[in-house]
Amino acid sequence: MQYFVLFVFGSVIGSFLNVISLRYKPNQKLLNKKIIGGRSHCLNCNKKLTWYELIPIVSFLLQFGKCRKCGKRLSFQYPIVEVLSGLIFVFVPFILTNNFQFTFSNNFQTALIFCWLLIFSLFILLSIIDIRYSIIPNSLNLSLTVLGFVLIIIKFFYEKSYFLNGYLNNSFLGHYAPVFGLERNIWFNHLFAALVGLIFFGLIIFLSKGKAMGMGDFKLVFGLGLIFGWPDILMVLLLSFIVGSLISVFFMIIKKKKMKDPIPFGPFLAIGSFFTFFFGYQIIDWYFKIFGL
Ligand SMILES: [Zn+2]
Questions:
Q1: pLDDT at 170
Q2: How far is it, in rounded angstroms, from Cα 151 to Cα 158?
Q3: How far is the CA of 122 from the centre of ligand 1 (A)?
Q4: Which of 157, 216, 246, 287 shows a CA-CA span of 20 to 30 A to 264?
Q5: Which three-class secondary structure state does DSSP give residue 190?
Q6: Ligand 1 mean position to 129 CA, how many Å?
Q7: How far is the CA of 263 from the centre of ligand 1 (A)?
Q8: What's the pLDDT score for residue 79?
Q9: pLDDT tens figures, 46-67
Q10: 166 pLDDT exceeds 50?
Q11: Ligand 1 mean position, distance from CA 63 (Å)
């Protein structure tokens, strides 16, 4: 029952993220009246959606993925984002507590869960906007930076209680974290990670004369460093570059992009973050076992 409620709630948030990202235009505020207000309508024929057409996922299936009036195919972005968002709202609490039976009675856990749900919602939003317009709005990067500081403060005050299962040693890499020189001072750890990200991306921007990476990515990696800390930021960066290269090669093979075409990097950082959060420990465990360590 609890999973179901979380899933439905997450998919409603996902449908909201869809609306924001589709109504967004570059160089305007992310949350203005035009974006938030107004009933949802078909982007093709402007038909206002009735209440049952607003139900996430279900409405897409009921309408067979088409507008009822003009028959225009609806973007697959709708159900994909809604399902993804629903799953995130189910599994973020699971990872952070290693237990579905959390009760929201532990303030530390509740605050942590709330922060991470917000972070993942922002990841989804910035990925869609970056794919559509090749920019990452400053307001999103700023929000992620603020959330990074909020996470540090939460951990700082609840240091004793954060040795939770699956979230050992303040790292998603669990007992492997000390191998990379885990710094136990929360502030030092997270600021150091942010600095490493900035230097690394700064070098790439400098060496490629701004062609490989933009300022949006530069700001994003600072926020990610604050959020993930050391050594997790290493895995975020590594995974995002691996996924980024694979997808770029794929696009070149199917001839959709040329070598020179810029590919937005924000979504790859979001994917790297996603895998570090959910599978960081499994990935590093698998890696070390291959080499018999
Ligand atoms: Zn229509």
A1: 66
A2: 11
A3: 28
A4: 287
A5: helix
A6: 23
A7: 31
A8: 92
A9: 888 888 888 888 888 888 888 8
A10: no
A11: 11
